[in-house]
Amino acid sequence: MRVGIGHDTHRLGAGGPLRLGGGDIPHDRHLLGHSDGDVLLHAVIDALLGAAALGDVGQMFPDTDPANRGRDSGEMLQAARDAVAAVGWRIVNIDCIVHAQRPRLLPHRQTMRLRIADLLGVDPERVSLKGKTAEGIGPIGQEQAMAAECAALLAPREEDDSTTPIH
Ligand SMILES: [Zn+2]
Question: What predicted TM-score, i.e. pTM, was given to this entire model?
Answer without folding.
Answer: 0.93
